[in-house]
Amino acid sequence: MYNKETSKITIFDVFEISKIHIHNHREELMNTTCDQCFKNTDDDIDKDEIPLMARYVPFRIAKLIGESDCCLFEKKITSLSGTCAYLDIVGFTHIVSEYVNNKRDVGELSDIFSSYYSVIIENLREFSGSVYQFAGDSLLIGFDLLDGESMVDNFKRSFAAMYRTWELSINYNEVLESSNGFALNPKIGLGTGSYTQLLLGDLTRFVTPMFSGAAVRDAVIAEKNCNGQEFLITEEAYRLAEQAGMAYMFAPQESGFYKMISVDDDFVQNVPRPEYVDLYEYYERPHYYKRLYAFMNPMIREQIKNNYDGFAGDYRDASCVMVRFSGDFSQNEGTPIETCYRNFNAVYELLQDKAKKYGVFCNQPDLSDKGLVFPILFGSTSSSSVEDRESAACFFADEV
Which residues pair with residue 321 across a beta bridge? Predict the structure, then answer.
C-alpha cells in the first residue's frame, strides 16, 4: 500500500494480521469442460514433463489440481491451520563458493543438491507435507490439518516428517561427505498455528502459490535462533508436545524456544502416515497439464523442456536485483486480508511484467529472516555480457 503521508511503499504483514476472520465457503464444483480453470497454451503436451513440473508446486496444490473439478484459481486466499517448518542448510553459500573457486565441476554440485533435495522432498510428501518455498539452501514447508486430525496429531506428524529429514541428512553425510568434500547439515525451526495460502499472479502471467501467517513467522524465527545444526520448536509447539507425551524430547533454551535433544528410535515408524496420494493417477485426467502449466515460471518451463532432471540446473554468472519491502506493518491491523492481498499481488504482478519486458527471471517471493524479498536474476537465461546485465538491472530497478 502507498502511504501518501510518508511517501513510503508498505506491504501488508504477511506473517500475521490480527482480528481477521475469513469466511470459508465451499467451492462450487463445476463441469470439467469449464474454460477458465486452466492456462491456454499451444505447447505440445509431453507426458514425461508432467512429473517434473509437479515437483515444482506444493504437494497440496499438486493434489488440488487433480481433485478439483474446476475453478481452483478463483480461490486465491485459503485460511489454514497446522504446522510450518523452515529448514536451512548451514554454510550453504560457503559450500557453493568454495566448490566454484576450486574449479570443481559445478554440474556435479548440481547433481549433489538434486539428489539430496529429491529424497528430502519425497519424504515430506509421505507425511503430506507441502514445500511452498525452495530457495536452494532452504525449504519452507506446511503441514495443514487433515480431515478429523487434532492439532496434537498434526504436530506429531509434522515433527516426525522433519525428524526423518534430520535422520536422512545424517545418513547422507555419513555416506557422501568424504566424496562430496562437504556436509549438508540442516537447521530446523518449527511453529504451529494459523497461516494463509495465497495464489499470486494470474493466468495471463503465471501463478505462484505461497503461504504466510503466524505459524510461518514462528518457524522462521525459530530457525534463525538455531546455533548451527539444531532443531528448535516454539513454546506453542512444545505445549502440543506435552499433550502428546513428547516433552522429554526437548529442552528449554534461553531464547524461549525448545531444542530437540533425543528422540526414541522407533518414534518415526510409530507415527501413522496419511493415506499416500499417488499423483500419477491424476496425470491422465483432462486439463491436469494445463492447470499445472499455469504454475510454471517461464524459466522453469524452459529448463524442463531442456530435459533437466529434478532440481538440477546449471550455474552461470548473473546479476541480481533484490527488491525488498518493509514498513510499519502494524498500520495494517484490522485491514481486510482481501485488500492486503490485492496490494501484495499488484506488487508481484508489477515485478512479473517488468521481468518479462527485460527477458529476465522473476523468482518467487522469498520469506525468511530477511523479510519479504523478490530476487530478479539478469543473465540467468542468456549469455549477455556483465556490462549489459548490470545496465539492464539498473534500468529495471529505476523503473520499479
Answer: 376
Q: Residue 134 and residue 59: Cα distance in Å, rounded?
A: 13
Cα separation, 20 vs 334, whole angstroms: 7
Burial label for 127, CB within 10 Å (0-12, 13-18, 19+), is: buried
Task: Point out which residues pair with 83 in neighbouring strands.
Answer: 143, 192
Three-state DSSP class for 136?
coil
CATH class of 35-314: alpha beta
Q: What percent of the chain has pLDDT over 90?
A: 45
Q: How far apart are CA 29 and CA 44, in angstroms?
A: 28
The DSSP element (H or E) to which 151 belongs, if any, is helix 151-180
Q: Give the cell for residue 119.
A: 529424497
The full length of the chain comes to: 400
Distance between CA 95 and CA 172 in Å, rounded?
Answer: 16
Give CA–CA dist 73/303, Å, rounded.
24
> pLDDT tens across 59-98, in order?
999 999 888 877 788 889 999 999 999 999 999 888 988 8
Look up residue 223 and give its three cell numbers: 530457525
